[in-house]
Amino acid sequence: MLVLLAAGALLAGACGGDDQEAADDGDDGGLAADTATTNGPSDGGTDDVAGSGGTSPGAAALDDLDLQLTEVAAAESPTSLVTRPGTGGLYVAERAGTVRALAIAGSGADRTYELADEPLIDISDDVVADGERGLLDIEWAEDGAVLYLSYSLAPGGDTRVDAYDVDDDVLDTGSRREILAVDQPFANHNGGDIEFGPDGYLYVALGDGGSGGDPRGNGQDTGALLGKILRLDPAAPAGGRAYGIPADNPFADGGGAPEVWLYGVRNPWRIAFDPGSGDLWVADVGQNAWEEIDMLPAADGGGRGANLGWNAREGAHDYGGGSAPEGAIEPVYEYSHDEGCSITGGVVVDGGGVPGLEGAYVFSDYCEGVLRAVRVSDGEVVDERVFDDVTINSPVSFGVDAGGDVYVLSLGGTIARIDPA
Fold first, then answer.
1. What is the Cα–Cα distance from 265 to 227, expressed in whole angstroms?
2. How far is the first Cα of the chain from the last one, in angstroms, to the nearest whole number?
3. For residue 1, is it within any domain?
4. Which CATH number does the domain housing residue 254 bear?
5. Which pLDDT belongs to residue 108?
6. I need a surface site. Which of 6, 51, 113, 192 has the fewest CB within 10 A?
7. Is the dihedral of CA 204, 182, 255, 189 positive or negative?
8. Does residue 372 lie within any of the structural domains?
9. Radius of gyration of the chain measured on its C-alpha atoms
10. pLDDT tens digit string along 364-399?
11. Is the pLDDT score of 38 beyond 90?
12. What does DSSP assign to residue 160?
């Protein structure tokens, strides 16, 4: 449900906004859950090796781990933390429209972090940053020479993805290229995550367009861009577009919008690729009852043409009198609104400074702010843990540095590293 809290907090449950239907009100509940479900007919299964959604050789049982969060920096409503390929530099997106470098000095426990005073870029004049909107994500091209920004365009809040050339540490504002423009009918359910996949293509996660219950039916309409994860080739524009359509996109030859990779999502608040296997993880914010995680194994197509069920299904449950569409993928994990209200998707741990956490998908809930982790093997959850004593206020995103260390961002301003306790 993304809901704006006081003092500028974003994304606590994507049901907010003036256009929200009264029936869309959900309960903000307690700690997130133990309920797990297995994937549906399109699951391909994964090997029990590091980075495959399984248990890595050095992994410990999650119950045996003691973790803590170490605050390393403060930013103004940070929404994204990414590593620049080729340099290892860290960059932070701030909701109002700025991107700043986060410099690291030293090593190990003695590392220090300093957020640059001067932004790499400031597009705040072009960004609307209320409700569930703002500068929602940033991503570097694989060569580190292009920075992509995903944001809500002022004044109406429509989705934009722009690209800028960066030489050394200087961004050329005159190089701006509009890659994607999508109209947003309501102020909520924007999605906004952008990630380059292991195939070199740009994946764009878009919510269903907002209000409540997907009144326009975008989730199940393969001809609409909303309620989808798109797959684009921004390096090879073609056909009058600022991007190319990968030839193996499921609707590249018709039957739906050619940009669509998978559909049936409500508000995917963070997607991630397993750095070892390439499996795609999707954290989809629920309506009134269920938060879900979907895992699409690379060995089974990585979600190509997959239907995740919304708005006929919320998690693994029928919604609004609907039933599971034929072939729909069931979530690999879900938890109820008795135990949380808005999932904040995370990352698959691959190395870093927490021995034993390898291969786990770590995530949180915006309302509860408790660190959580699951491990999946052969399409089933084989280990899970709620780290009750590891909390952060209003967790909005996760990031990973060049060494594999994982960070949690609070919309309240904190950037914290996950460390052994």
1. 5
2. 32
3. no
4. 2.120.10.30
5. 85
6. 6
7. positive
8. yes
9. 19
10. 999 999 999 999 999 999 999 999 999 999 999 999
11. no
12. E
Q: Which domain holds residue 246?
A: 6-420
Q: Inform me whether the pLDDT recorded for 321 exceeds 90.
A: yes
Q: CB-based contacts of 263: which residues, under 8 Å, 6+ apart? A: 219, 220, 221, 222, 227, 228, 229, 256, 306, 307, 308
Mean pLDDT of the chain: 89
Residues facing residue 204 across a β-bridge: 194, 230
Q: Nearest-CA neighbor of 219 among 128, 278, 284?
A: 284
Q: Is residue 407 part of a domain?
A: yes
381's CB contacts (< 8 A; 6+ apart) are 36, 38, 332, 333, 374, 375
Token pair of 89 as six digits = 């530099």
Longest dimension (CA), the chain: 57
Q: What is the pTM of this model?
A: 0.89
Tokens of 109: 């426990």
Copy the structure tokens of residue 284: 């989809």
Q: What is the pLDDT of residues 233-246, one digit of tens each?
A: 999 999 999 999 99
Asked if residue 191 lies in contact with residue 208, where contact means CB atoms within 8 angstroms, the answer is no
Is pLDDT of 202 > 50? yes
Query: Do the domain assignments include residue 260?
Result: yes
Q: How many domains does the chain have?
A: 1
Compute the 3-state secondary structure of the chain and give helix, strand, coil in percent, each to the nearest 5.
5, 40, 55
Rounded to the nearest angstrom, the gap between the alpha carbon of residue 141 and the centroid of all alpha carbons in its chain is: 17
